[in-house]
Amino acid sequence: MVKKPRQYLSRDLTISENLARLRGQAGMTQEAVAVQLQLYGIVMSRSQFSDIERGQLNISISTLVALRTIYKCEYADFFKGLDEELLELQKKLEKSDS
Q1: Least C-beta-crowded within 10 Å: which of 14, 47, 73, 89?
Q2: How far apart are CA 33 and CA 52, in angstroms?
Q3: Which pLDDT value is given to residue 62?
Q4: Structure pTM?
Q5: For residue 60, how many C-alpha atoms fall within 13 Å in the half-sphere facing its CB?
């Protein structure tokens, strides 16, 4: 009998918390960000942006580029802390294999 590899259901890495943090640091509401994005030609409602911040909707690269300008931040700020989150996921997988 051939042993099938285990499949794991886990949450993928997300930048949603960083998006919410950066918006807060910029002192903006979700509505204000949606309006600013529209000025960059990105059609986005407040509820769509809320879904992105909650990790329910993926963010496009063009939106990320616009947010970098709107928030006056670096691209690295969007990905802050993901290295640690990835290490935690790897440790969980290693534990479940043993």
Answers
A1: 47
A2: 12
A3: 97
A4: 0.76
A5: 10
Q: 1, 65, 78, 6: which is closest to 36 by C-alpha? A: 65
Integer Cα distance of 46 and 75 in angstroms: 22
- Distance (Å, rounded) from C-alpha 78 to C-alpha 75? 6
Contact 83, 28 (CB under 8 A): no
pLDDT digits (tens, 9 = 90+) for 53-75: 998 999 999 999 999 999 999 99
Q: Mean pLDDT, to the nearest integer, of 28-44?
A: 97
- What token pair was written down for 25? 């640091």
Mean pLDDT taken over the chain: 87
Read off the amino acid at residue 78: F
Q: 16-97: which CATH architecture? A: Orthogonal Bundle (1.10)
